[in-house]
Amino acid sequence: MDNVNHNSKEINKLYIKNMVCDRCIMVVRDTLKQIGIEPINVKLGEVDINQEIDAPIKSELKQRLESLGFELIDDKRMVINERIKSLLIELVHHNNCKLKTNLSDYLTDKLSLDYSYLSKLFSEINNTTIEKYFIAQKIERVKELLIYDQMSLNEIAYSLNYSSPAHLSSQFKSIIGQTPTEFKNDNNSPRMSLDKV
Hints:
This protein is of the alpha+beta class. It is built from 9 helices and 4 strands.
């Protein structure tokens, strides 16, 4: 197999913490353009550029991103951690949890790293497991869909790949302390910002 990366001189990656939605992508893209960096591709937690960034520009970018609630990350372990989070957020909030394989295989395939390593790293940094984080993201998505009130509980369960509405309700109550119906009827029930989940 050819291990030579022909694009290594052309493409540089930036990793950015707390990118959780399409709006974040737009804000980061605009911020880069404001300081003269033309991104090739911007997705959750990751930006591809085809230029080198010198220290003063990087410092300015770091400050601008931090003022918007983002963080430029260089530490390899933190980069992997953020990539795991971004993949799970994208899976839950943009792809409705549609997996053609199990979660461990999905992450292993996407990140080209052994799942036991990913799992250990994630748990050490976040004090929770990948599975619990994935479930927490699913619950936030359920809250969002309940508040929008455009889908029945059956439709929500189906769209988020739950085995049944009863399974969704049970998981929801064990985490939130209310049934989905109680949550929906309780105007004081808060949703969490995805970067705080």
